[in-house]
Design goal:
about 375 residues; 60s Ribosomal Protein L30, Chain: A; Phosphoribosyl-aminoimidazole Synthetase, Chain A, domain 2; six-stranded mixed sheet; Phosphoribosylformylglycinamidine cyclo-ligase; PurM-like_C_sf
Length: about 375
């Protein structure tokens, strides 16, 4: 006969903690990151942390459209865990979500995070949330709440994964998108801060496995260690994009993530038009050249995997392009004329190209 111990028996019986879930550690983590999370707020937030649901007053809009998005950080997490550095990955998480929202002109209102972790170490969780809170402040949105789930047996003690969902709002009359894009529009590129949060499976395979580089090894082309380069946080463009759209004739944005520049921009270019982008207008950062050279990765594969130095793209009216560039420069954004939108069959042929965005020319040689 099997002896089944009553889980309510505290005299030597089985406990949740014995099974690997430390509720007290989770409570300590909340105590540590609560002051950080409270800084990432907005006047519309109602209530506080600790409730079953976050509350947010939508405010006064004519015809509001809510926009929402969810994302994670991917295998960049493996670098953070290998380096035992957890205070920047939250910025990546926020950037991946809110910069998708702003593509349609939506202002990010609030974000909620989810952290799955093998074993709750309060200090590590607090570091992760500190990055999330800092990212929310940079994006102008509130950190409305979240969840930390301990998964012993499913994840190793030092492993974790993060994801988040954000909600934004845009007036229907100000919605940006492909229907606004016109022949003659100018495509403006905004520089990325590095790899951002895409392509890390290939980057790690080339740099760590194939080339055998060490994360703590100094790389002269980067001016810092490989690990520091790989953990450079994803740039958050949300407030800059919102400010630009408020002052200039912006037709749409494109957040350059997985799939690369051409594929992401093609998502916001309507049928019958092509965004032609000039490779000669910018020079990709050294990290991209290093990956291509050490891994013998083709240009086509690089451009399908990485942002190649362009993190966000704005498509603006031709007459407003110079003003848009000046405004971005004033906001300390490295921006330039990346290309233009043209008719798909400018040569008079009837064969429209399958791609709605294409890269032409060659990158500058150094």
């Amino acid at each position: 006969m099997t002896d089944l111990t009553d889980p309510r028996d505290n005299s030597g019986g089985t406990s949740y903690a014995a099974a690997g879930v430390d509720i007290e550690a989770g409570d300590r983590a909340v105590e540590m990151f609560a002051p950080l999370a409270k800084k990432a707020t907005r006047p519309e937030v109602r209530g506080g942390l600790g409730g079953f649901a976050g509350l947010f007053a939508l405010g006064d809009y004519d015809k509001p459209l809510l926009a929402s998005g969810s994302d994670g950080v991917g295998t960049k997490l493996a670098v953070a865990q290998a380096m035992n550095k957890h205070d920047t990955i939250g910025r990546d998480l926020v950037a991946m979500v809110v910069d998708d929202l702003v593509v349609c002109g939506a202002e990010p209102l609030f974000l909620q995070d989810y952290i799955a972790i093998g074993k709750v170490v309060p200090e590590h969780v607090a570091e992760i949330v500190s990055g999330i809170a800092a990212g929310c402040i940079d994006a102008g949105c509130a950190l409305l709440g979240g969840e930390t789930a301990e998964h012993p047996g499913l994840m190793e003690p030092g492993e974790y994964d993060v994801s988040a969902t954000a909600v934004g709002v845009v007036e229907e009359a100000k919605l940006l998108g492909p229907d606004r894009v016109r022949h003659g529009d100018v495509v403006i590129g905004m520089a990325s801060s590095g790899l951002h949060s895409n392509g890390y499976s290939l980057a790690r395979h080339v740099l760590l496995e194939k080339a055998g580089l060490e994360l703590d090894g100094y790389v002269s082309d980067f001016g810092r260690t490989l690990g520091e380069e790989l953990l450079e946080p994803t740039k958050i463009y949300a407030l800059d994009c919102l400010a630009l759209a408020a002052e200039c004739d912006v037709h749409t944005y494109s957040h350059i993530t997985g799939g690369g520049l051409a594929a992401n921009l093609a998502r916001v270019i309507p049928e019958g038009l092509v965004a032609e982008l000039n490779r000669g207008s910018w020079e990709p950062a050294p990290v991209f050249r290093t990956i291509a050279q050490l891994g013998k990765v083709s240009q086509d594969e690089m451009e399908k995997t990485f942002n190649m130095g362009v993190g966000m793209v704005a498509v603006v009216g031709e007459d407003d392009a110079e003003r848009a560039l000046a405004m971005l420069t004033a906001r300390h954004i490295d921006a330039w004329n990346l290309g233009h939108v043209r008719l798909a069959a400018e040569d008079g042929s009837e064969n429209e190209p399958s791609a709605r965005a294409e890269l032409v020319g060659e990158y500058p040689r150094t």
